[in-house]
Amino acid sequence: MTYPARRSLMVFPEIPNVHALAVLLLTLLALFLFTREKIPLESSSLFVLVVLIVGFELFPFAGPFGTVSAADFFHGFGHEALVAVCALMVAGHALVRTGALEPVARRLGRFWKRAPLFALFLTLLVGAFLSAFMNNTPIVVLMLPMLIGAAIRSKTSTAGVLLPMGLATLIGGMSTTIGTSTNLLVATVAADMGMERFQMFDFAVPAMLAGSVALLYLWLIAPRLIPERRPPLTEESRRVYTAQLTIAEGSPHAGKSLFSLVRKAGPDFHVRRILRDDNLLLAPLPDVHLKANDRLLVTDTVAQLREFQALLGAELRTESGEALQLDTGDLQLAEVAVTLGSRLQGKRLGNVRLKEEYGLEILALHSSGSVQEVDTPGLGDRILQPSDVLLVQGAAAGIKRLKISGELLVLDGTADLPRTRKAPLALTIMVLVVLLAAFDILPIEASALLGVMTMLGTGCLRWRDARNALSTQVILIIVASLALGSALMRTGGADWLALVFLALASDAPAWVILSGLMLLMAILTNIVSNNAAAVIGTPIAISIAMELGLPLEPFVLAVLFGANLSFVTPMAYKTNILVMNAGGYKFIDFVRVGAPLTVLMWASLSTILAVSYGL
Questions:
Q1: CA nearest 532: which of 91, 44, 87?
Q2: Which helix (H) or strand (E) holds 76?
Q3: CA pair distance 155, 148, nearest whole angstrom
Q4: How big is the chain by its Cα radius of gyration, in Å?
Protein backbone atom coordinates (compact mmCIF):
# COMPACT_ATOMS: atom_id res chain seq x y z
CA MET A 1 0.00 0.00 0.00
CA THR A 2 1.36 3.46 -0.90
CA TYR A 3 0.54 6.83 0.57
CA PRO A 4 1.18 10.42 -0.58
CA ALA A 5 4.71 11.57 0.01
CA ARG A 6 4.98 14.10 2.78
CA ARG A 7 6.90 17.28 2.61
CA SER A 8 10.17 17.58 4.49
CA LEU A 9 9.53 18.72 8.03
CA MET A 10 13.06 19.66 9.02
CA VAL A 11 11.90 23.24 9.73
CA PHE A 12 10.62 23.69 13.27
CA PRO A 13 7.00 24.99 13.24
CA GLU A 14 6.21 28.55 14.28
CA ILE A 15 4.95 29.35 17.76
CA PRO A 16 1.16 28.79 17.86
CA ASN A 17 -1.48 31.38 18.75
CA VAL A 18 -1.75 32.73 22.29
CA HIS A 19 -4.69 30.49 23.25
CA ALA A 20 -2.98 27.35 21.97
CA LEU A 21 0.22 28.32 23.76
CA ALA A 22 -1.71 28.87 27.00
CA VAL A 23 -3.38 25.46 26.69
CA LEU A 24 -0.02 23.81 26.02
CA LEU A 25 1.46 25.43 29.14
CA LEU A 26 -1.59 24.34 31.14
CA THR A 27 -1.12 20.81 29.81
CA LEU A 28 2.49 20.79 31.03
CA LEU A 29 1.35 22.11 34.41
CA ALA A 30 -1.37 19.44 34.57
CA LEU A 31 1.09 16.65 33.83
CA PHE A 32 3.34 18.00 36.58
CA LEU A 33 0.48 18.21 39.09
CA PHE A 34 -0.63 14.66 38.27
CA THR A 35 2.77 13.39 39.43
CA ARG A 36 2.62 15.13 42.84
CA GLU A 37 1.76 12.53 45.47
CA LYS A 38 0.88 15.17 48.08
CA ILE A 39 -1.77 16.76 45.83
CA PRO A 40 -4.90 14.61 45.40
CA LEU A 41 -5.45 13.73 41.75
CA GLU A 42 -9.03 14.98 41.92
CA SER A 43 -7.80 18.38 43.20
CA SER A 44 -5.37 18.69 40.28
CA SER A 45 -8.11 17.69 37.83
CA LEU A 46 -10.55 20.23 39.28
CA PHE A 47 -7.90 22.95 39.07
CA VAL A 48 -7.26 22.22 35.38
CA LEU A 49 -10.99 22.20 34.62
CA VAL A 50 -11.61 25.50 36.43
CA VAL A 51 -8.67 27.23 34.71
CA LEU A 52 -9.98 26.16 31.29
CA ILE A 53 -13.53 27.26 32.05
CA VAL A 54 -12.62 30.63 33.55
CA GLY A 55 -9.87 31.29 31.00
CA PHE A 56 -12.00 30.75 27.90
CA GLU A 57 -14.94 32.60 29.50
CA LEU A 58 -12.79 35.68 30.07
CA PHE A 59 -10.83 35.30 26.80
CA PRO A 60 -13.05 33.62 24.16
CA PHE A 61 -11.36 32.02 21.17
CA ALA A 62 -12.72 31.78 17.64
CA GLY A 63 -10.99 29.32 15.35
CA PRO A 64 -11.63 26.87 12.52
CA PHE A 65 -13.90 24.81 14.79
CA GLY A 66 -15.98 27.79 15.88
CA THR A 67 -15.94 29.79 19.09
CA VAL A 68 -14.60 27.98 22.15
CA SER A 69 -16.52 28.91 25.29
CA ALA A 70 -16.65 27.74 28.89
CA ALA A 71 -19.75 25.60 28.22
CA ASP A 72 -17.72 23.33 25.90
CA PHE A 73 -15.71 22.02 28.83
CA PHE A 74 -18.77 20.85 30.78
CA HIS A 75 -19.57 18.31 28.09
CA GLY A 76 -17.21 15.81 29.72
CA PHE A 77 -19.67 15.29 32.57
CA GLY A 78 -22.22 13.99 30.08
CA HIS A 79 -19.74 12.31 27.75
CA GLU A 80 -20.68 8.78 26.77
CA ALA A 81 -17.18 7.55 27.67
CA LEU A 82 -17.58 8.76 31.26
CA VAL A 83 -21.07 7.24 31.46
CA ALA A 84 -19.73 3.91 30.21
CA VAL A 85 -16.75 3.91 32.58
CA CYS A 86 -18.90 4.71 35.63
CA ALA A 87 -21.56 2.15 34.70
CA LEU A 88 -18.95 -0.57 34.18
CA MET A 89 -17.34 0.29 37.53
CA VAL A 90 -20.70 -0.16 39.26
CA ALA A 91 -21.54 -3.38 37.39
CA GLY A 92 -18.08 -4.79 38.16
CA HIS A 93 -18.57 -3.97 41.83
CA ALA A 94 -21.65 -6.23 41.81
CA LEU A 95 -19.43 -9.19 40.89
CA VAL A 96 -17.31 -8.50 43.97
CA ARG A 97 -20.31 -7.77 46.17
CA THR A 98 -21.98 -11.09 45.32
CA GLY A 99 -18.76 -13.11 45.13
CA ALA A 100 -19.58 -14.16 41.56
CA LEU A 101 -15.93 -14.80 40.69
CA GLU A 102 -15.14 -16.75 43.86
CA PRO A 103 -15.48 -20.20 42.23
CA VAL A 104 -12.75 -19.25 39.75
CA ALA A 105 -10.40 -18.22 42.57
CA ARG A 106 -11.22 -21.33 44.59
CA ARG A 107 -10.44 -23.70 41.69
CA LEU A 108 -7.17 -21.88 41.01
CA GLY A 109 -6.31 -22.28 44.69
CA ARG A 110 -6.66 -26.07 44.37
CA PHE A 111 -4.20 -26.13 41.46
CA TRP A 112 -1.59 -24.35 43.59
CA LYS A 113 -1.41 -27.30 45.94
CA ARG A 114 -0.64 -29.76 43.13
CA ALA A 115 1.43 -27.90 40.53
CA PRO A 116 2.50 -24.33 41.45
CA LEU A 117 4.19 -23.60 38.10
CA PHE A 118 1.16 -24.69 36.07
CA ALA A 119 -1.09 -22.86 38.54
CA LEU A 120 0.85 -19.63 37.94
CA PHE A 121 0.30 -19.98 34.19
CA LEU A 122 -3.44 -20.55 34.72
CA THR A 123 -3.61 -17.57 37.08
CA LEU A 124 -1.98 -15.27 34.51
CA LEU A 125 -4.28 -16.57 31.79
CA VAL A 126 -7.47 -16.23 33.84
CA GLY A 127 -6.50 -12.77 35.12
CA ALA A 128 -5.77 -11.52 31.60
CA PHE A 129 -8.98 -13.02 30.17
CA LEU A 130 -11.25 -11.58 32.86
CA SER A 131 -9.59 -8.16 32.57
CA ALA A 132 -10.57 -7.97 28.90
CA PHE A 133 -14.21 -7.65 29.94
CA MET A 134 -14.20 -5.91 33.31
CA ASN A 135 -12.17 -3.49 35.38
CA ASN A 136 -9.06 -5.24 36.66
CA THR A 137 -9.23 -3.76 40.17
CA PRO A 138 -11.86 -6.22 41.52
CA ILE A 139 -9.96 -9.06 39.83
CA VAL A 140 -6.72 -8.12 41.59
CA VAL A 141 -8.60 -7.65 44.87
CA LEU A 142 -10.04 -11.16 44.50
CA MET A 143 -6.77 -12.78 43.47
CA LEU A 144 -4.45 -11.27 46.09
CA PRO A 145 -5.69 -13.09 49.21
CA MET A 146 -6.12 -16.36 47.28
CA LEU A 147 -2.56 -16.24 45.92
CA ILE A 148 -0.98 -15.25 49.24
CA GLY A 149 -2.78 -18.05 51.03
CA ALA A 150 -1.97 -20.59 48.30
CA ALA A 151 1.71 -19.61 48.28
CA ILE A 152 1.96 -19.98 52.05
CA ARG A 153 0.24 -23.38 52.02
CA SER A 154 2.40 -24.67 49.16
CA LYS A 155 5.53 -23.08 50.72
CA THR A 156 6.32 -21.17 47.53
CA SER A 157 7.43 -17.56 47.31
CA THR A 158 4.75 -14.93 46.72
CA ALA A 159 7.33 -12.60 45.14
CA GLY A 160 7.22 -14.35 41.79
CA VAL A 161 3.44 -14.64 41.81
CA LEU A 162 1.68 -11.41 42.83
CA LEU A 163 3.51 -8.94 40.59
CA PRO A 164 3.21 -11.07 37.41
CA MET A 165 -0.51 -11.55 38.16
CA GLY A 166 -1.09 -7.80 38.50
CA LEU A 167 0.75 -7.04 35.26
CA ALA A 168 -1.13 -9.82 33.44
CA THR A 169 -4.44 -8.10 34.19
CA LEU A 170 -3.07 -4.90 32.60
CA ILE A 171 -2.10 -6.83 29.48
CA GLY A 172 -5.52 -8.45 29.20
CA GLY A 173 -7.24 -5.10 29.66
CA MET A 174 -5.78 -3.63 26.48
CA SER A 175 -7.46 -6.16 24.15
CA THR A 176 -11.05 -4.80 24.05
CA THR A 177 -12.71 -1.39 24.07
CA ILE A 178 -14.14 -2.05 27.55
CA GLY A 179 -11.02 -3.62 29.06
CA THR A 180 -9.88 -0.34 30.61
CA SER A 181 -11.24 3.19 30.88
CA THR A 182 -8.23 4.24 28.79
CA ASN A 183 -9.42 2.15 25.85
CA LEU A 184 -12.94 3.58 26.08
CA LEU A 185 -11.63 7.13 26.19
CA VAL A 186 -9.32 6.74 23.21
CA ALA A 187 -12.00 5.02 21.12
CA THR A 188 -14.63 7.64 21.98
CA VAL A 189 -12.40 10.69 21.53
CA ALA A 190 -11.20 9.37 18.16
CA ALA A 191 -14.83 8.82 17.08
CA ASP A 192 -15.70 12.37 18.20
CA MET A 193 -12.94 13.61 15.88
CA GLY A 194 -14.41 11.87 12.85
CA MET A 195 -12.69 8.48 12.88
CA GLU A 196 -14.83 5.37 12.48
CA ARG A 197 -15.65 4.01 15.93
CA PHE A 198 -13.71 0.97 17.13
CA GLN A 199 -15.86 -2.07 17.81
CA MET A 200 -15.21 -4.21 20.88
CA PHE A 201 -12.74 -6.67 19.32
CA ASP A 202 -11.24 -4.51 16.53
CA PHE A 203 -7.77 -4.44 18.11
CA ALA A 204 -7.97 -7.74 20.00
CA VAL A 205 -5.70 -9.58 17.53
CA PRO A 206 -2.57 -7.38 17.89
CA ALA A 207 -3.15 -7.20 21.67
CA MET A 208 -3.46 -10.99 21.91
CA LEU A 209 -0.39 -11.66 19.74
CA ALA A 210 1.83 -9.32 21.77
CA GLY A 211 0.11 -10.36 25.00
CA SER A 212 0.87 -14.05 24.41
CA VAL A 213 4.60 -13.32 24.30
CA ALA A 214 4.27 -11.08 27.36
CA LEU A 215 2.43 -13.76 29.37
CA LEU A 216 5.19 -16.26 28.62
CA TYR A 217 7.69 -13.70 29.89
CA LEU A 218 5.66 -13.17 33.07
CA TRP A 219 5.36 -16.92 33.57
CA LEU A 220 8.90 -18.13 32.91
CA ILE A 221 11.23 -15.13 33.26
CA ALA A 222 9.72 -12.44 35.50
CA PRO A 223 9.63 -14.59 38.68
CA ARG A 224 13.39 -15.10 38.35
CA LEU A 225 14.01 -11.34 38.24
CA ILE A 226 12.37 -10.59 41.58
CA PRO A 227 14.34 -11.10 44.80
CA GLU A 228 12.67 -12.80 47.74
CA ARG A 229 10.01 -10.54 49.22
CA ARG A 230 7.72 -11.34 52.12
CA PRO A 231 4.19 -9.98 52.14
CA PRO A 232 3.68 -7.66 55.12
CA LEU A 233 2.09 -9.22 58.17
CA THR A 234 1.64 -12.76 56.82
CA GLU A 235 1.99 -15.80 59.09
CA GLU A 236 5.43 -16.38 57.67
CA SER A 237 6.63 -12.87 58.51
CA ARG A 238 5.48 -10.48 61.26
CA ARG A 239 1.82 -11.25 61.86
CA VAL A 240 1.44 -10.65 65.58
CA TYR A 241 -0.95 -11.13 68.49
CA THR A 242 -0.90 -9.02 71.61
CA ALA A 243 -1.75 -11.46 74.42
CA GLN A 244 -1.34 -12.27 78.10
CA LEU A 245 0.45 -15.29 79.53
CA THR A 246 -1.06 -15.98 82.96
CA ILE A 247 0.93 -17.81 85.65
CA ALA A 248 -1.58 -20.41 86.85
CA GLU A 249 -2.15 -21.53 90.45
CA GLY A 250 0.37 -24.24 91.30
CA SER A 251 2.66 -23.31 88.43
CA PRO A 252 6.33 -24.19 89.00
CA HIS A 253 7.21 -20.66 87.94
CA ALA A 254 5.25 -19.01 90.75
CA GLY A 255 7.77 -17.54 93.22
CA LYS A 256 10.62 -17.59 90.70
CA SER A 257 12.25 -14.59 89.07
CA LEU A 258 11.39 -13.29 85.62
CA PHE A 259 15.01 -14.00 84.65
CA SER A 260 14.55 -17.74 85.19
CA LEU A 261 11.38 -17.66 83.10
CA VAL A 262 13.12 -15.87 80.21
CA ARG A 263 16.02 -18.33 80.39
CA LYS A 264 13.57 -21.24 80.03
CA ALA A 265 11.51 -19.65 77.22
CA GLY A 266 14.52 -18.51 75.20
CA PRO A 267 16.00 -15.23 73.95
CA ASP A 268 12.94 -14.43 71.77
CA PHE A 269 10.71 -14.15 74.83
CA HIS A 270 10.18 -10.42 75.52
CA VAL A 271 7.80 -9.34 78.29
CA ARG A 272 6.43 -5.82 77.79
CA ARG A 273 4.96 -5.47 81.26
CA ILE A 274 3.60 -7.46 84.22
CA LEU A 275 0.03 -7.04 85.47
CA ARG A 276 -0.63 -8.02 89.10
CA ASP A 277 -4.05 -7.95 90.76
CA ASP A 278 -6.41 -5.40 89.18
CA ASN A 279 -4.39 -2.22 88.98
CA LEU A 280 -0.74 -2.97 89.78
CA LEU A 281 1.64 -2.58 86.87
CA LEU A 282 5.21 -3.84 87.25
CA ALA A 283 8.22 -3.14 85.07
CA PRO A 284 9.64 -6.35 83.52
CA LEU A 285 12.90 -6.29 85.49
CA PRO A 286 14.90 -9.55 85.62
CA ASP A 287 14.80 -9.78 89.45
CA VAL A 288 11.00 -9.40 89.76
CA HIS A 289 9.57 -12.50 91.47
CA LEU A 290 6.40 -13.78 89.86
CA LYS A 291 3.22 -14.77 91.72
CA ALA A 292 0.29 -16.97 90.78
CA ASN A 293 -2.21 -15.12 88.54
CA ASP A 294 0.42 -12.64 87.35
CA ARG A 295 -0.20 -11.75 83.72
CA LEU A 296 2.75 -11.24 81.38
CA LEU A 297 1.91 -9.02 78.41
CA VAL A 298 3.72 -10.21 75.26
CA THR A 299 3.42 -9.52 71.54
CA ASP A 300 4.52 -12.13 69.06
CA THR A 301 3.48 -14.41 66.23
CA VAL A 302 0.93 -17.17 66.69
CA ALA A 303 3.58 -19.85 66.44
CA GLN A 304 5.74 -18.18 69.09
CA LEU A 305 2.82 -17.65 71.47
CA ARG A 306 1.90 -21.31 71.21
CA GLU A 307 5.53 -22.22 71.89
CA PHE A 308 5.67 -20.01 74.99
CA GLN A 309 2.35 -21.44 76.19
CA ALA A 310 3.66 -25.01 75.93
CA LEU A 311 7.09 -24.27 77.44
CA LEU A 312 5.81 -22.32 80.42
CA GLY A 313 2.52 -24.11 81.00
CA ALA A 314 0.82 -20.69 81.08
CA GLU A 315 -2.72 -19.73 80.04
CA LEU A 316 -3.00 -17.60 76.92
CA ARG A 317 -5.47 -14.73 77.02
CA THR A 318 -6.22 -11.54 75.11
CA GLU A 319 -4.93 -8.19 76.32
CA SER A 320 -8.33 -7.55 77.95
CA GLY A 321 -8.03 -10.86 79.82
CA GLU A 322 -10.39 -13.02 77.72
CA ALA A 323 -9.32 -16.52 76.76
CA LEU A 324 -7.53 -16.56 73.41
CA GLN A 325 -8.58 -19.65 71.47
CA LEU A 326 -5.92 -19.96 68.82
CA ASP A 327 -6.93 -23.46 67.81
CA THR A 328 -10.69 -23.08 67.49
CA GLY A 329 -10.74 -20.51 64.71
CA ASP A 330 -12.95 -18.13 66.75
CA LEU A 331 -10.38 -15.37 66.39
CA GLN A 332 -8.89 -14.55 63.03
CA LEU A 333 -6.51 -12.04 61.57
CA ALA A 334 -7.03 -9.91 58.49
CA GLU A 335 -5.14 -7.21 56.62
CA VAL A 336 -7.17 -4.14 55.68
CA ALA A 337 -5.53 -2.04 52.98
CA VAL A 338 -5.97 1.70 52.60
CA THR A 339 -6.58 2.24 48.90
CA LEU A 340 -7.10 5.30 46.72
CA GLY A 341 -10.58 6.59 47.45
CA SER A 342 -10.97 4.43 50.56
CA ARG A 343 -12.94 5.96 53.42
CA LEU A 344 -9.83 5.44 55.57
CA GLN A 345 -7.61 7.57 53.31
CA GLY A 346 -6.62 10.80 55.05
CA LYS A 347 -8.13 9.68 58.38
CA ARG A 348 -6.27 9.65 61.70
CA LEU A 349 -5.54 6.12 62.88
CA GLY A 350 -6.97 7.01 66.27
CA ASN A 351 -10.32 7.88 64.66
CA VAL A 352 -10.76 4.55 62.88
CA ARG A 353 -13.74 2.79 64.46
CA LEU A 354 -13.51 -0.79 63.24
CA LYS A 355 -14.19 -2.15 66.73
CA GLU A 356 -17.52 -0.37 67.06
CA GLU A 357 -18.65 -1.34 63.53
CA TYR A 358 -17.24 -4.85 63.14
CA GLY A 359 -15.81 -5.87 66.51
CA LEU A 360 -12.24 -5.82 65.12
CA GLU A 361 -9.21 -4.76 67.14
CA ILE A 362 -6.39 -2.97 65.29
CA LEU A 363 -3.12 -4.66 66.27
CA ALA A 364 -0.54 -3.05 64.02
CA LEU A 365 0.09 -0.74 61.09
CA HIS A 366 2.34 -1.64 58.18
CA SER A 367 3.59 1.44 56.40
CA SER A 368 6.60 2.09 54.17
CA GLY A 369 8.14 -1.29 54.92
CA SER A 370 7.91 -1.07 58.72
CA VAL A 371 5.50 -2.54 61.28
CA GLN A 372 4.29 -0.38 64.18
CA GLU A 373 2.12 -1.62 67.03
CA VAL A 374 -0.94 0.41 67.94
CA ASP A 375 0.45 1.44 71.31
CA THR A 376 3.47 3.15 69.66
CA PRO A 377 3.55 6.73 71.03
CA GLY A 378 1.92 9.19 68.65
CA LEU A 379 0.69 6.51 66.27
CA GLY A 380 -2.93 7.48 66.86
CA ASP A 381 -2.23 10.79 65.10
CA ARG A 382 -0.81 9.07 62.02
CA ILE A 383 -2.72 10.07 58.85
CA LEU A 384 -3.46 6.96 56.81
CA GLN A 385 -2.25 6.98 53.21
CA PRO A 386 -2.88 4.67 50.23
CA SER A 387 -0.79 1.46 50.50
CA ASP A 388 -0.89 1.48 54.34
CA VAL A 389 -2.13 -1.81 55.81
CA LEU A 390 -3.86 -2.37 59.14
CA LEU A 391 -3.56 -5.74 60.86
CA VAL A 392 -6.87 -6.42 62.60
CA GLN A 393 -8.01 -9.23 64.87
CA GLY A 394 -11.54 -10.33 65.61
CA ALA A 395 -14.22 -12.95 65.24
CA ALA A 396 -14.64 -14.66 61.88
CA ALA A 397 -18.12 -13.17 61.60
CA GLY A 398 -16.74 -9.64 61.93
CA ILE A 399 -14.11 -10.17 59.26
CA LYS A 400 -16.71 -11.73 56.99
CA ARG A 401 -19.06 -8.77 57.48
CA LEU A 402 -16.19 -6.41 56.65
CA LYS A 403 -15.56 -8.27 53.39
CA ILE A 404 -19.23 -8.45 52.45
CA SER A 405 -19.72 -4.73 53.09
CA GLY A 406 -17.37 -3.96 50.19
CA GLU A 407 -16.44 -0.69 51.93
CA LEU A 408 -12.84 -1.68 52.74
CA LEU A 409 -10.28 -3.87 50.99
CA VAL A 410 -9.52 -7.00 53.01
CA LEU A 411 -6.27 -8.45 51.68
CA ASP A 412 -6.06 -11.58 53.78
CA GLY A 413 -7.86 -13.63 56.40
CA THR A 414 -9.38 -17.06 56.78
CA ALA A 415 -13.01 -15.96 56.51
CA ASP A 416 -14.81 -17.07 53.36
CA LEU A 417 -15.07 -14.66 50.46
CA PRO A 418 -18.57 -13.20 50.10
CA ARG A 419 -20.83 -15.41 48.03
CA THR A 420 -24.59 -15.04 47.85
CA ARG A 421 -27.36 -16.72 45.92
CA LYS A 422 -27.31 -13.66 43.62
CA ALA A 423 -23.83 -14.52 42.31
CA PRO A 424 -24.95 -16.52 39.21
CA LEU A 425 -27.45 -13.79 38.36
CA ALA A 426 -24.84 -11.03 38.64
CA LEU A 427 -22.45 -12.99 36.43
CA THR A 428 -25.21 -13.59 33.84
CA ILE A 429 -26.09 -9.89 33.74
CA MET A 430 -22.43 -8.94 33.23
CA VAL A 431 -22.07 -11.44 30.38
CA LEU A 432 -25.19 -10.00 28.70
CA VAL A 433 -23.77 -6.47 29.06
CA VAL A 434 -20.65 -7.58 27.18
CA LEU A 435 -22.57 -9.53 24.51
CA LEU A 436 -24.98 -6.66 23.75
CA ALA A 437 -22.01 -4.38 23.11
CA ALA A 438 -19.92 -7.03 21.31
CA PHE A 439 -22.65 -7.77 18.77
CA ASP A 440 -23.36 -4.05 18.29
CA ILE A 441 -26.94 -4.40 19.53
CA LEU A 442 -26.41 -1.53 21.98
CA PRO A 443 -23.50 0.88 22.47
CA ILE A 444 -21.46 0.01 25.55
CA GLU A 445 -22.69 3.02 27.53
CA ALA A 446 -26.31 1.89 26.98
CA SER A 447 -25.71 -1.81 27.71
CA ALA A 448 -23.67 -0.97 30.83
CA LEU A 449 -26.41 1.32 32.19
CA LEU A 450 -29.00 -1.36 31.43
CA GLY A 451 -26.84 -3.82 33.34
CA VAL A 452 -26.60 -1.49 36.36
CA MET A 453 -30.36 -0.98 36.39
CA THR A 454 -30.89 -4.75 36.22
CA MET A 455 -28.35 -5.36 39.01
CA LEU A 456 -30.20 -2.89 41.22
CA GLY A 457 -33.64 -4.20 40.27
CA THR A 458 -32.72 -7.82 41.02
CA GLY A 459 -31.01 -7.06 44.32
CA CYS A 460 -27.47 -7.88 43.16
CA LEU A 461 -26.56 -4.32 44.13
CA ARG A 462 -27.86 -1.74 46.55
CA TRP A 463 -27.68 1.97 45.88
CA ARG A 464 -25.12 2.25 48.65
CA ASP A 465 -22.92 -0.26 46.79
CA ALA A 466 -23.34 1.72 43.57
CA ARG A 467 -22.27 4.94 45.29
CA ASN A 468 -19.24 3.22 46.83
CA ALA A 469 -18.21 1.85 43.43
CA LEU A 470 -17.97 5.32 41.89
CA SER A 471 -14.71 7.21 42.25
CA THR A 472 -14.57 11.00 42.33
CA GLN A 473 -10.94 10.72 41.26
CA VAL A 474 -11.78 8.73 38.12
CA ILE A 475 -14.68 11.05 37.20
CA LEU A 476 -12.67 14.26 37.56
CA ILE A 477 -9.54 12.99 35.81
CA ILE A 478 -11.65 11.86 32.84
CA VAL A 479 -13.56 15.15 32.63
CA ALA A 480 -10.40 17.25 32.97
CA SER A 481 -8.56 15.12 30.41
CA LEU A 482 -11.43 15.41 27.93
CA ALA A 483 -11.48 19.18 28.43
CA LEU A 484 -7.73 19.45 27.87
CA GLY A 485 -7.91 17.28 24.76
CA SER A 486 -10.74 19.38 23.35
CA ALA A 487 -8.87 22.63 24.06
CA LEU A 488 -5.71 21.29 22.42
CA MET A 489 -7.62 20.29 19.29
CA ARG A 490 -9.80 23.39 18.90
CA THR A 491 -7.02 25.92 19.49
CA GLY A 492 -4.59 24.18 17.14
CA GLY A 493 -2.29 23.09 19.96
CA ALA A 494 -2.54 19.42 18.97
CA ASP A 495 -1.61 20.22 15.38
CA TRP A 496 1.41 22.21 16.58
CA LEU A 497 2.57 19.35 18.82
CA ALA A 498 2.17 16.96 15.91
CA LEU A 499 4.35 19.19 13.72
CA VAL A 500 6.97 19.42 16.48
CA PHE A 501 6.99 15.63 16.81
CA LEU A 502 7.39 15.21 13.05
CA ALA A 503 10.09 17.87 12.91
CA LEU A 504 12.06 16.01 15.55
CA ALA A 505 11.52 12.77 13.66
CA SER A 506 12.81 14.48 10.51
CA ASP A 507 12.31 12.22 7.47
CA ALA A 508 12.07 8.99 9.44
CA PRO A 509 9.88 6.23 7.99
CA ALA A 510 6.24 6.14 9.08
CA TRP A 511 6.74 3.00 11.16
CA VAL A 512 9.50 4.70 13.15
CA ILE A 513 7.22 7.67 13.86
CA LEU A 514 4.42 5.33 14.95
CA SER A 515 6.79 3.40 17.19
CA GLY A 516 8.17 6.63 18.67
CA LEU A 517 4.65 7.85 19.44
CA MET A 518 3.84 4.61 21.27
CA LEU A 519 7.08 4.82 23.27
CA LEU A 520 6.33 8.43 24.22
CA MET A 521 2.90 7.38 25.51
CA ALA A 522 4.46 4.46 27.42
CA ILE A 523 6.88 6.79 29.18
CA LEU A 524 4.14 9.33 29.91
CA THR A 525 1.67 6.78 31.33
CA ASN A 526 4.21 5.60 33.91
CA ILE A 527 4.61 9.15 35.19
CA VAL A 528 1.10 10.65 34.99
CA SER A 529 -2.44 9.33 34.75
CA ASN A 530 -2.90 6.88 31.87
CA ASN A 531 -6.27 8.47 31.08
CA ALA A 532 -4.67 11.90 30.81
CA ALA A 533 -1.91 10.54 28.56
CA ALA A 534 -4.46 8.80 26.35
CA VAL A 535 -6.87 11.71 25.92
CA ILE A 536 -4.10 14.24 25.28
CA GLY A 537 -2.26 11.86 22.94
CA THR A 538 -5.26 10.91 20.78
CA PRO A 539 -5.74 14.28 19.00
CA ILE A 540 -1.96 14.51 18.54
CA ALA A 541 -1.92 11.06 16.93
CA ILE A 542 -4.73 12.01 14.55
CA SER A 543 -2.94 15.24 13.60
CA ILE A 544 0.28 13.29 12.89
CA ALA A 545 -1.56 10.77 10.70
CA MET A 546 -3.35 13.51 8.76
CA GLU A 547 -0.11 15.44 8.26
CA LEU A 548 1.53 12.28 6.89
CA GLY A 549 -1.47 11.37 4.75
CA LEU A 550 -1.67 7.97 6.45
CA PRO A 551 -4.63 6.05 7.95
CA LEU A 552 -5.65 7.21 11.41
CA GLU A 553 -6.19 3.79 13.01
CA PRO A 554 -2.57 2.65 13.58
CA PHE A 555 -1.56 5.97 15.15
CA VAL A 556 -4.62 6.05 17.43
CA LEU A 557 -3.88 2.43 18.42
CA ALA A 558 -0.27 3.43 19.14
CA VAL A 559 -1.63 5.88 21.71
CA LEU A 560 -4.10 3.33 23.09
CA PHE A 561 -1.50 0.59 23.50
CA GLY A 562 1.22 2.95 24.73
CA ALA A 563 -1.05 4.43 27.40
CA ASN A 564 -1.76 0.88 28.66
CA LEU A 565 1.92 -0.01 29.19
CA SER A 566 1.70 0.96 32.88
CA PHE A 567 4.24 -1.60 34.06
CA VAL A 568 7.33 0.26 35.25
CA THR A 569 6.22 2.26 38.30
CA PRO A 570 3.83 1.48 41.18
CA MET A 571 2.00 4.78 40.72
CA ALA A 572 1.32 4.12 37.03
CA TYR A 573 -1.92 2.25 37.82
CA LYS A 574 -3.95 1.80 41.01
CA THR A 575 -3.67 -2.00 40.96
CA ASN A 576 0.12 -1.66 40.96
CA ILE A 577 -0.13 0.04 44.36
CA LEU A 578 -2.32 -2.77 45.70
CA VAL A 579 0.12 -5.41 44.46
CA MET A 580 3.13 -3.50 45.79
CA ASN A 581 1.65 -3.32 49.26
CA ALA A 582 0.26 -6.86 49.42
CA GLY A 583 3.48 -8.42 48.15
CA GLY A 584 5.95 -6.28 50.08
CA TYR A 585 7.59 -5.20 46.81
CA LYS A 586 10.04 -2.34 46.37
CA PHE A 587 9.92 0.32 43.66
CA ILE A 588 12.90 -1.31 41.95
CA ASP A 589 10.97 -4.59 41.58
CA PHE A 590 8.53 -2.91 39.21
CA VAL A 591 11.44 -1.49 37.22
CA ARG A 592 13.17 -4.91 37.04
CA VAL A 593 10.07 -6.67 35.73
CA GLY A 594 8.17 -3.81 34.11
CA ALA A 595 10.94 -2.23 32.01
CA PRO A 596 11.73 -5.40 29.98
CA LEU A 597 7.99 -6.09 29.70
CA THR A 598 7.39 -2.58 28.36
CA VAL A 599 10.17 -2.95 25.79
CA LEU A 600 8.83 -6.37 24.78
CA MET A 601 5.25 -5.13 24.35
CA TRP A 602 6.35 -1.91 22.64
CA ALA A 603 8.51 -3.74 20.09
CA SER A 604 5.85 -6.42 19.46
CA LEU A 605 2.94 -4.00 19.08
CA SER A 606 4.93 -1.56 16.94
CA THR A 607 5.93 -4.36 14.57
CA ILE A 608 2.41 -5.81 14.41
CA LEU A 609 0.81 -2.43 13.68
CA ALA A 610 3.42 -1.50 11.08
CA VAL A 611 3.02 -4.82 9.25
CA SER A 612 -0.78 -4.85 9.53
CA TYR A 613 -1.17 -1.37 8.03
CA GLY A 614 1.72 -1.60 5.55
CA LEU A 615 3.74 1.26 7.06
A1: 44
A2: none
A3: 10
A4: 28
